């Protein structure tokens, strides 16, 4: 509130001036957290996609593996 804003005008109060930016601190914080979580998710997905399965198994027609158990 600005009383006696202009002495030569008839109005007592000046124009309202709201000093709020387009991006407030909560919006910046939310964007920052979303970007960090997105990077972690992308990194995790890349690591999961890079897992290689075995493509060579025991030959079913070859010699079988035998393990002797001795007590």
TrEMBL record:
Pfam families: Ac45-VOA1_TM. PANTHER family: V-TYPE PROTON ATPASE SUBUNIT S1, VACUOLAR ATP SYNTHASE SUBUNIT S1. Keywords: Membrane, Transmembrane, Transmembrane helix. It is a single-pass membrane protein. It comes from Diploptera punctata. InterPro entries: Ac45_acc_su, VAS1/VOA1_TM. Residues 22-59 form the V-type proton ATPase subunit S1/VOA1 transmembrane domain. The keyword RNA-binding does not apply. This is V-type proton ATPase subunit S1/VOA1 transmembrane domain-containing protein.
